[in-house]
User: Fold this.
Amino acid sequence: MSRPAQLLRRRTDPLGASFLELFFDLAFVLALSQLVSILLADLSVAGALRTALLLAPVWLAWTTTTWSTDWYDPGARSVRVLLIGATLGTLLMGVALPEALAGRGLLFAGAYVAIHLGRGLLISIGLRGHPLRRRTLRVLCWYSATSLLWLFGAFVPAARVPVWVLALAVDYSGPRLGWPTPHLGRASAEELRLSGGHLSERFQQVFIIALGELILAAGMAYSEAGTSLPQTAAFLMTFAAAVLIGLLYVTPAGMHLGPAIDRAYQSRLATTLAYLQLLMIAGVVATAAGGELAITHPTERGTVAAVAVTVAGPALFLAGRVLLSVALHRRFSWPRLGGLLAMFVATVVAIRLPLLAVSAITTAVLFVVAAVDHTGVFSPPRVGQR
Assistant:
């Protein structure tokens, strides 16, 4: 076990992600693939809400693990064990996802609880005698409390959904509140400080993982559906949407997101960004589902649910990017806001069109937004991300 001073990550250490951090990201691939399948299996509003309910804890497992590798040295033995354990836990959550609200609820909840409690116990032991141990103990206390809710929901299927929703509400409010705990108080801004360079790089890396799932889903659907002209056109539309979403995400986010977090000097912005990343990744998941529908049934007139999913994917992504501009600059990104409004119009216009046409409309909207964005006409007056 590392001594406390060796466990902490120094601000002079390289900010690049370690091998095990990237290895941990790979576990996210299975979860995203399963979530796309879950959404496609039930395109109703209830199905979309169930998919969101299952995505939220998977994302929180990734986020809190990433924050830990920002606070603690990824090269320390304890943190390496933490990352390997979190990778296994996330894989088990991914395995359980299709039946998480049915027969595999205990596997899903147990893996989620094990990730958080295991991390807290491991770090709290390694930080014995160090003042920052109180931060870890606060987080451990919160997850110990919500673990009871997660396990209760796993053992009582009739109450699973409402109990897990309550558990998620508590888990997601913890970082915003500084994990206030009796006798331990609330975490200070300095205790919660995160490195903008490391966090922005990790956000980009996991977003690339999400885009990889989008491309993989499109390729698999294209391979199975055949290579006729309509299927080929739908596949190319989905690929173009993936490229445009990627460009809209990293330009200019990749250059300015890190400095914005550093200037904020507290975790609240980082927490907000994590939640907005969740919204944008949800958009990528829905885009993958819509792309599969268009590739598999390009010439069929889409049902209301199929059209809604096809449009909702890019719309959710654009909504996340619009809110990101508001969070960083207290201003709207007008090209993205216009694109978001166009998506709602597209839903009405495309309701009687073939799915290939619906996909073409959403891709065209993304292209126009990216083109206007590239001109820089609506760039913010100060340095930062739009």
About this structure: Residues 196-375 form a domain with the I/LWEQ domain fold (CATH 1.20.1410). Confidence is low (pLDDT under 50) at residues 381-386.
